[in-house]
Specification:
globular, alpha/beta, two-stranded antiparallel sheet, seven-stranded mixed β-sheet, Aspartate Aminotransferase, domain 1
Length: about 325
């Protein structure tokens, strides 16, 4: 029984999870471990262009793996004939590749595993194992969702998350830069965690989100940047009425742009530098790591922030053009 009276807890509105019918676990990588164990896979095909943490459960379980290449559409270059004990993992990149997910589901059927860590709003396809990461889209310390029809026959311990909240609280109180080292530490704390059920704290945080408003804000921000930058973007990533992107992927040869944005306090990540050690410098994946600028379009921002991003980027373009003319 919960206590009655005493000091107040953090007050959050209670609505419901967006993924109401999924298993609620602690991390996305543990969703993958859950699937590998439950379905007793012996080998998995994974894209070169992925975060290195995806290897954590694969190596832990000593499962064979093989990398595959993607093309400029961010889709697999080749098809594979799989046995019943082999899986094919595909990432729904930036929440913009749902059509490719459907094509791969038709190709690999139940051997497909969909990594929707970058596509929180993408609907799972019936019968296809699919997992999601909450912290890629929302201010939570951990949390993941898994859709599967195969379950482990063991009782999972529940996670505890309050010790991983410092970066989230610092960002509100004293700013993003003050909490960055705590953010990095939180990332480290999630390494090599056993599979656990989602914590009470993360559960309550995720029940408090206005998912419809978040979706609309992300789509609107994406559209603003896309309307201005699509002609300058080296790759057409596509965007349809069902897409709810994680970010705006801007692929450009403007080498100094990343530093310029960060200098102006527009923080852009670099996905994923581990790929540079996996691929040769002539591969598409290698070039993609170097040239992708992931522009923020999330629900914290609106038109004014998008205009600020474009102002910094356009100033950079004007300076480059001026240098070209003077030379």
């Amino acid at each position: 029984m919960n206590c009655i009276g005493g000091y107040f807890e953090l007050e959050l509105r209670t609505v419901e999870h967006y993924h109401q019918n999924a298993l609620k676990l602690n991390t996305a990588r543990n969703c993958l471990e859950y699937l590998l164990r439950a379905k007793e896979y012996r080998k998995i095909f994974i894209p070169y262009y992925t975060c290195e943490v995806i290897l954590e459960p694969i190596k832990k379980l000593k499962i064979d793996y093989e990398f595959y290449h993607i093309n400029q559409k961010l889709e697999p270059k080749n098809k594979y004939k799989l046995s019943n004990r082999e899986a094919f993992l595909y990432t729904n990149y930036f929440g913009l590749k749902q059509e490719a997910v459907q094509d791969l589901a038709n190709c690999y059927n139940k051997n497909l595993i969909v990594d929707n860590s970058q596509a929180f709003y993408a609907k799972p396809i019936e019968g296809i194992d699919t997992f999601y990461s909450a912290r890629k889209f929302f201010g939570v310390p951990d949390g993941a969702y898994l859709y599967t029809n195969k379950y482990l026959e063991e009782k999972l311990e529940q996670d505890i998350s309050y010790t991983r909240m410092l970066h989230l609280l610092k960002r509100i109180d004293i700013g993003a830069e003050a909490g960055y080292s705590d953010f990095q530490q939180n990332d480290s704390l999630l390494n090599n965690q056993p599979i656990k059920r989602m914590s009470n704290l993360t559960d309550k945080l995720l029940k408090s989100i206005n998912y419809e408003e978040t979706k609309l804000r992300r789509r609107k921000n994406y559209e603003i940047l896309s309307n201005e930058l699509q002609n300058d973007n080296q790759i057409d990533f596509g965007f349809d009425e069902s897409s709810v992107p994680m970010l705006y992927p801007y692929f450009s040869k403007r080498n100094k742009l990343r530093k310029k944005l960060i200098k102006n306090k527009i923080f852009v990540a670099k996905f994923w530098e581990n790929v540079l050690g996996w691929c040769n410098s002539n591969s598409f994946e290698y070039k993609f790591v170097e040239m992708l600028i992931p522009l923020p379009i999330d629900q914290r921002y609106a038109k004014n922030e998008m205009l600020k991003i474009m102002e910094v980027m356009n100033h950079d373009i004007e300076r480059e053009n001026s240098n070209i003319k003077s030379n």
